[in-house]
Amino acid sequence: MGKKGKKEKKGRGAEKTAAKMEKKVSKRSRKEEEDLEALIAHFQTLDAKKTQIVETPCSPPSPRLNASFSAHPEKDELILFGGEYFNGQKTFLYNELYIYNIRKDTWTKVEIPNPPPRRCAHQAVVVPQCGGQLWIFGGEFASPNGEQFYHYKDLWVLHLATKTWEQVRSPGGPSGRSGHRMVAWKRQLILFGGFHESTRDYIYYNDVYAFNLDTFTWSKLSPLGTGPTPRSGCQMSVTPQGSIVIYGGYSKQRVKKDVDKGTQHSDMFLLKSEEGKEGRWIWTRINPSGAKPIPRSGFSVAMAPNHQTLLFGGVCDEEEEESLEGDFLNDLHFYDAIKNRWFAGQLKGPKSEKRKRRRGPKAEPLGADKPECGGPSTLAPLEVVREVVAEDGTVVTIKQVLSAPGPVGQPQSDEDDSPEEAGSPVVEPSPRSNAMLTVKHGRLYLYGGMFEAGDRQVTLSDLYCLDLHKMDEWTALVEADPETQEWLETDSEEDSDVGEGAEGGEEDEDSGEDSGEEDGEPQHPLVMPGEQFTDYLPRTEQYWVRLARDDAGPDAKEKRVLKVAHAMAKTFFDDSA
């Protein structure tokens, strides 16, 4: 009894510490979130002016990451919502809705009145009710300079049959967060983890919430047993037995002042509802066998056929106190919950008609159509090293780890393959993290994501497809050339004029004045119809002044701070035009 009481007391102490930390983070971040609320409110005002549904055929969406990509439950369509893009100087957030028609290979931009505010790193879950519903929770909005964050705690539903957005207001839900995970379980949405970050503090979560799709009510679950430590970006999927699997993820903790240490988790847990005891859940740690993925963050997850969970890509960080290097990946792994086993996803490669006629069904061993046939191989993974030349002439080396091809992927003999086939380039997604995945009719669709080349972040807009039954080869549906992507260096003169504030000297003040109201400003989509830049600024001046004061320094005169604020806001308008 004594030991049990001591353990319970320790558990309550940990809960108090977590609650205290959350309160501290909440207090410090409240001020900066209030600044961003003005900007978010303005965007919502503009969205509210849209009173009709407008569907416009369009080219593929622009590059982005941390969006949601979902399969329509009834139609041959994929739904892309939100996301973010960084061009080296400014962060862009989206609340655009795109529909990809699989059969026609066409994109449509759908503008619906009163959508959710712009966001990324949210979660989206599709359920079949009422002709299909897309449920979205949380995510984050960032300031243009990417240094301030607003974390949402709102819940939205897109009614796919009527193409209408609805915000569902229900008390008792999770706090504001991003990087969390959410799945549909029976008639509920189950949400786990995530993080909240402000300029100076952050906190990671390991709490669990359930939202009832019948009563539209939230409840916080208190599972028994020892569960995962706080984390974000993990794998969360429902098993055929009705349990929920949590794998991996990322978290960081402060080891000393201004020094954080990140952790790429590789543990796995099972969250199971106790039979006959409604609302009672229990955590169990499990140790799967097989070819386990190497620890990583930023990987993408989708549900493969036969209720297997598919994991793609990510980045394996090598972190030191003063530096962070990462190897971006494009490998595939499957987790079979029934066997509690990992399998490496190995592609067989294209086959010629000649080989099919000669061998017929004998060309493939029993069960070759199943992902689990890509089990552990006697061959070691292959490491491909390539060099990318950045715009500034810097040569950056990118290491790519590929799974070794299995026996079915090897040519059987020289006479089976023509020289053209032997020398044809392999089509596959480049190594990346934070890509979007979804599965429809047994086909895996992969969109966008990012990788880094030196100090440059390359955001992708390509679309690939892989038949998970055949597991032969990737098909490129939309190709993109990263070399053509805009990248603005942060140390340019233009950037220092605006961002460095008082450090720029007298020339900066002149630059600030030149960017002021004397010049005629073109109408900008962020400005209300009929307004000029000078009409818009007063409503959000507090936001820009606060950013400018941070850059100008505590000793800067108020007039100087105001000039810098005007210059920053004006540059934001001009760059977004």
UniProtKB/TrEMBL annotation:
Residues 11-24 have a biased composition (Basic and acidic residues). Residues 1-10 have a biased composition (Basic residues). Gene3D superfamilies: Kelch-type beta propeller. Residues 1-33, 348-378, 401-434, 482-533 are annotated as: Disordered. It comes from Pteropus vampyrus. InterPro entries: Kelch-typ_b-propeller, Kelch_domain_protein. Residues 482-520 have a biased composition (Acidic residues). This is Kelch domain-containing protein 4 isoform X2. It holds the Pfam family Kelch_KLHDC2_KLHL20_DRC7.
